[in-house]
Design a protein that fits this description.
Helices cover 35% and strands 9% of the residues. It is of the alpha/beta class. It has one domain: Uracil-DNA glycosylase-like domain (Uracil-DNA Glycosylase, subunit E, 3-Layer(aba) Sandwich). A 5-stranded mixed β-sheet has the order 1-3-2-4-5. α1 packs antiparallel against α4. The longest helix has 18 residues. The protein is globular, with a radius of gyration of 17 Å.
Length: 223
Amino acid sequence: MSSAKIEERANQILEQLKKDRRLGQYVDKSLYIPHPFRGKGSVRLIVLGQDPTVKDAESRKDIKTVLNLNKNGSVRAYLAGVCNSLGINVSENVYATNLYKNFFVRPPTQIVDIDIFQEFAPVWLPLLIDELAQFGHIPVITLGQPILAPLVNDAVPAQVRHYWDYTPDWRSGNLHAFQHIKPQENKLGRIIFPFPHQPSLRKQFYKAKMEDYISHVKATVFE
């Protein structure tokens, strides 16, 4: 399906959500869906974000592209570092999109009266599957933990740290039993590498494991 068709369907879904008696109250009806980011060269990596609703409500109106990857900023710097370690270029080889295309009235983690991720997943997931179909078996990096539960199949772990070889005594271990989500284990039907979102990079565990986990990604799909 062409990018134009995907955009048209996304806007149709947004209009339907605005009118929905139950879900519409959680949708920011004043903001448009940000455009996906696509590098100038051949796509070799898909970056999947959660939704565009940043904490600062005033700055949301300035988000025109997924993850603000059209601008120099902390998220772009983070992804550029990952891509460089993989031997690719964020400006050339990345396609970035969100599972949840719409802005919410508040960041989803602040919405407690419903499970926003589970309620909105059936609305947006079929479109995401069609959107990514144009990229064959290109692997996916997900950002953040909440996005995993709607993507993985039943009984598949939905914690980022699980795939990064977390144990309570991880500081003393050097097992490096890194994992990823296999195509048969998720609804996208492709390899998924769970990464922490940028704020979690302050945690010592992810700082210590980052270089080795990127090496796992590289060895799995880039060598």
